[in-house]
Amino acid sequence: MNVLRRSNGLIDTPRLRKAIGDWVEEKRVEAAKDIDRVKDTYRKRAAVIGFRCGVIFHLLSGKAKETQQCIDFALMMAEYCLNVQIKTFGESLSNQYENNKTTKQRNSRNKSVFEQLPPMFSTEDVRALKDSDCNIPAIRMIISRWVHDSWIKKIDNNLWQKCNR
Questions:
Q1: Beta strands of the chain (E only): which ranges?
Q2: Does 103 score more than 70 pLDDT?
Q3: What backbone torsions phi and psi does residue 145 show, to the nearest 5 degrees?
Q4: Is the pLDDT of residue 106 over 60?
Q5: How far apart are the C-alpha atoms of 28 and 32, rounded to whole Å?
Q6: Where does the pLDDT of residue 86 fall: very low under 50, low under 70, confident under 90, or very high at 90 and above?
Q7: What share of the chain is helix, strand, coil (3-state, %, to 5)?
Q8: What's the count of helices (H) and strands (E) in the chain, helices before strands?
Q9: Gap between the Cα atoms of 17 and 67, Å rounded
């Protein structure tokens, strides 16, 4: 334990970084192929935990460079953490993704402004509902975000329509 307490500064572990980087990319590809958002979320956390375990292993080993056992241990811990996180939290995270998909709530500072607008509106309508100090570029940015998020579509010059969601 004293070894860990005495350790400070940069601990360079290039082989370990590469191995964990390769592992997390492999899991990203697996998650993308399976369209598994839960695995994609937890792979990142598991990689960090596995890397930290590898660094501790390396420090305790007292070796100048990371050993293959150190890398194998870090990868084993990353895999273990990923599996346990998926088993423990996967169903609730998956349910949350489903709830978010079905509700499609509009979360923004301008939600109340958006909700107050008529089905078809102009820049002036937005300006009337915003603070008096809100300038045209700021209003254009708000409208741009709404278009990007598919909340509205442009009908004509300076005229937008809310999308049914």
A1: 120-121, 152-156, 159-162
A2: no
A3: -65, -40
A4: no
A5: 6
A6: very high
A7: 70, 5, 25
A8: 7, 3
A9: 13
- What is the per-residue pLDDT across 61-71, written as a single tens digit (0 to 9) for each? 999 899 999 99
One-letter amino acid identity for 47? Answer: A
Residue 164 DSSP one-character state = P
First-to-final CA distance of the chain: 57
The amino acid at 135? N
Summarised one tens digit per residue, pLDDT across range 113-149 is 888 888 999 888 888 887 666 788 888 888 888 888 8
| Residues composing the chain | 165
What letter represents residue 128's amino acid?
Answer: A
3-state SS class at 99 = helix
> 143-155: string of b/e by CB count within 10 Å (b at 16+)?
beebeeeebbeee
